[in-house]
Amino acid sequence: MKKILLIPDSTWGxxxxxxxxxxxxxxxRSCNLEVGLYCSDDNRDSxxxxxxxxxxxxxxxxxxxxxxxxxxxxxxxxxxKKVIKxxxxxxxxxxxAISNKTFTEYxxxxxxxxxxxxxxxxxxxxxxxxxxxEGTCYKCINGNYFNALKNNCIQSKNKYLVFLKKAFERYKxxxxxxxxxxxxxxxxxxxxxxxxYGVDKDxxxxxxxxxxxxxxxxxxxTKGDYFAVIGQCSVxxxxxxxxxxxxxxxxxxxxxxxxxxxxxxxxxxxYSLQPYIESGIIEIISxxxxxxxxxxxxxxxxxxxxxxxxxxxxEFALLESMGxxxxxxxxxxxxxxxxxxxxxxxxxxxxxxxxxxxxxxEDLSNDDELWTVLSHGAFKAFNQITDFKNFDSxxxxxxxxxxxxxx
Length: 407
Hints:
This protein has helices spanning 16-30, 46-54, 74-87, 104-109, 146-150, 159-178, 188-197, 242-247, 261-270, 274-278, 291-299, 316-323, 336-339, 354-366, 368-385, 391-400, and strands spanning 3-8, 34-39, 58-61, 91-95, 114-117, 131-132, 135-136, 182-185, 204-206, 226-229, 253-257, 282-285, 303-305, 328-331, 347-349. Helix content is 40%, strand content 14%. It is of the alpha/beta class. The strands form 3 sheets. Strands 3-2-1-4-5-8-9 form a 7-stranded parallel sheet. A 6-stranded parallel sheet has the order 12-11-10-13-14-15, with helices on both faces. A two-stranded antiparallel ribbon has the order 6-7. The chain has 2 domains: 3-211 and 389-400, 3-Layer(aba) Sandwich (Rossmann fold); 214-385, 3-Layer(aba) Sandwich (Rossmann fold). It starts with a strand and ends in a 7-residue tail after the last helix.
């Protein structure tokens, strides 16, 4: 049995990244692979240990990343060498960020193939999600990170120091990424961005999105009377457009899911939304204790707005909405423009087209036939992009046919 060592950003918890890693582990095991997991102990508990035992995972604790590892690798590399010696993997899979993982030169030296699957645009964007107010951003993709300063992407009191650290991390990351044996992606749109970055298309592979459909099994859905808005409250996630969209609609109720109460208060104040809250047009949903609480807000909505404008790769909030057969409204960014057809399986607007987006909301609110078409279309698209029917053969192709072996 071949061995694969998985190195994710995070594993323990119930956020989307945690759940995706846990599902990936299960799928790797289903491919008849012996799986090692090298990650931090953050949020690890007794349930984590049960998960490791039930899935027969070899667990190796990873010390927290520190920036100085980029220059002084010795201690981090010493730990990593011990893991390699103990587990003796045939393959390494980096899942998520690679800017905080500094061991690829050692893997190349030891002729151990490694693969990289990015989850966001953090590999070239200093704020992780590459979107500005006007839309999708590629300004730093070729390494001119000074664009991040020009566009005020670093929000910190020590922004110049933070800028230098982040730019250096991404400078070092590029060589690691381009020397990978395979680059793995969720969609052709994601591969297009990676090609802009410099990835050779011949070493790329596509896999389904690591989303566990079983997480939605016990969620009961109803057709509610409000539009749910979900996603991180940031420009890259398109939330700066939400207030104008709301103002351009009439007779529509919105529930804005903003996880932190402090962020919600700042958003309300910045965009002068208090009158809309007092009139019942807007309801803010904050401080939800469990992820199931979020799913229940989605499940009871009429439709879900996911307004991201960065090169999206498959947000869990979007997938959950589709999996619950909710019509979704999006901008044509990233994977959205690949998987959605306007008025067939979603309502799709060009980035920044507030008029169409607002009209789509009103049309959907008043047209039951359109709602039914989009509900069915969203669920069908969901099943297509989370279909693991051919995953075993895809993974076999990735692991066996190492096109690129850099020495």
